[in-house]
Amino acid sequence: MSLRTLRANACATADAIGSLFGQSVEVVVHDLEAGTIAHIVNPYSRRVPGDPSNVQDVDFRAMDMVIGPYEKIHWDGSILRSISIVQRTEEGRAAYMICVNSDQSGLLSLQRAVEALLPSKAAGSDVGDVFRNDWHERLNIFVSDWCRVRDVSIERLDRSMRRALLAELDVSGALNERNAAAYVGRLLGVSRATIYNDLKAGASDV
Length: 206
Description:
Blueprint: H1 3-21, E1 25-31, E2 36-41, E3 66-73, E4 79-88, E5 94-103, H2 105-111, H3 127-130, H4 135-149, H5 159-172, H6 180-188, H7 192-204
Antiparallel strand pairs: 1-2, 1-5, 3-4, 4-5
Helix pairs in contact: 5-7, 6-7
């Protein structure tokens, strides 16, 4: 099977899963050779095709076809339950990976009333190693924790709070990753230019 066919099949599978489960499920097709997102359905993570995958350095074992389920943190602090399917060439080379991310916030809310509805613990202790370089995840956790400590939602940040958040992100080195500023801009609902202007304004205040 050619890479073009493999990619087309992966994207079609992503479209089918997204259509079946609706907006609560995001499906991402990673191009493992290019190290970028090839296709994304229901993109509530605010990533877009062409964004870095951050899984390109994963050393897939010969038997790896399905990874997970495992849990991740969404940019707003909610929990995602995810599973990944490796798409291989006829030679066995990992070429694409389909990641299905299911928003668990509804189920976790029901947990308060019905404990039996809580999903079981994520399986596989080595899954975290696969995504150890995912700076999207690290940014999501940082922004979510920052907003929670200050008891404010990300949508209600004013300019001064946004600049304070960006200053801390900058000091932490989180914005050093390629395309990080653009991704943070999407999280905060502003342009990349605004991110750079806020950083410059913050630096001039020091």
